[in-house]
């Protein structure tokens, strides 16, 4: 394989040759689109920390869902902003809660679209933590029951898949048992298995109004320097019944995606989180890079690392770009 006998540039001569030997492809079916649902009617307000993303009221979802489906995107993941927050995050598992209503509306309007729900309490609790607070701490085991009934309420509303993002120990098993007991054996769990305590969630917390009122999430989300711990988390979630494993964030954790892809024979999802999206948008606004090209490169990199699909705020825009290309 020595130069000048081998010249890598031969296969880069033109676009047809480059396409012929391209190892990774990106298509709309690789993307899942996150949506933020808010109370009210006829609401479609741009989220300041996420340019091009909107707070949407339930009545806006059928229209948005149809467009997403027409673009070839297979699914969405729903986040809700409740009208009322309390200590126990009651609206998270209220049959008339914001996400439950959103799921019903979307499934009725666009039944083909996969509707996933984020299962967590942080958007619904007045303290902003992902579980119940007991004696000043996020109590693991007391939180499990609430997460389980939240997942069941989403399934009852018609969700196709539930995605726990709280990082409590044992939540996949608690959710699996609760779903099965209610007759939802067929509803898969997409587990945020390796979810790191990341500053890249900043813009999301503004969008979802879910920043913790005190402290931080370091006692339940993972410590960024650790990779063996991620593999233990994944092992546990698979033992507990997870169907798909997620790594989050994506770009600063590509090594984790690759290791999970190589070591476990389960589908792998990656979440290109709010901060990853926002920093590309921000740099583009300053004229420092081309947002579309940078986004395509970031997403194809996440796929190349081993993700089967990617949750991304850029999903519709990228689907449109791919259609044109
Ligand atoms: C809820 C949740 C968060 C994200 C997804 N689900 C926020 C957090 O854990 O603080 C982050 C998504 C993003 O930044 O795009 N726990």
Q: Catalogue the ligands.
A: ligand PBG
Overall shape: it is globular
Spans of 5+ residues with little confidence (pLDDT < 50)?
none
Outline the biggest β-sheet: 10 strands, mixed
* Rg over CA atoms: 20 Å
Helix-strand pattern:
HEEEHEHEEEHEHEHHEHEHHEH
The fraction of residues in strands falls at 15-25%
Helical proportion? Answer: 25-40%
Structural class: alpha/beta
Q: Average pLDDT, to the nearest integer?
A: 97
Distance between the termini: 34 Å
User: Quick one: how many beta strands?
Assistant: 12
Determine the number of helices (DSSP H or I, runs of at least 4 residues).
Answer: 11
Explain briefly what this protein structure is.
The protein is α/β, with parallel strands linked by helices.
Describe the overall structure.
The protein is of the alpha/beta class and 325 residues long. It has helices at residues 15-20, 61-70, 98-109, 140-157, 171-181, 202-207, 228-240, 254-263, 274-285, 291-305, 315-324; strands at residues 31-38, 44-47, 50-57, 75-80, 114-119, 132-134, 137-139, 161-164, 190-195, 244-248, 268-272, 309-312. Helix 8 links the parallel strand 10 (244-248) and strand 11 (268-272). Helix 2 packs across helix 3, helix 3 packs parallel to helix 4 (140-157) and helix 4 packs across helix 5 (171-181). The model has no long low-confidence stretch (mean pLDDT 97). It binds ligand PBG. Ligand PBG is lined by residues 118, 120, 122, 130, 165, 201, 204-205, 210, 273-274.
SSE inventory with pairings:
Elements: H1 15-20, E1 31-38, E2 44-47, E3 50-57, H2 61-70, E4 75-80, H3 98-109, E5 114-119, E6 132-134, E7 137-139, H4 140-157, E8 161-164, H5 171-181, E9 190-195, H6 202-207, H7 228-240, E10 244-248, H8 254-263, E11 268-272, H9 274-285, H10 291-305, E12 309-312, H11 315-324
Parallel strand pairs: 1-3, 1-4, 1-12, 4-5, 5-8, 9-10, 10-11, 11-12
Antiparallel strand pairs: 2-3, 6-7
Ligand PBG binds next to helix 6.
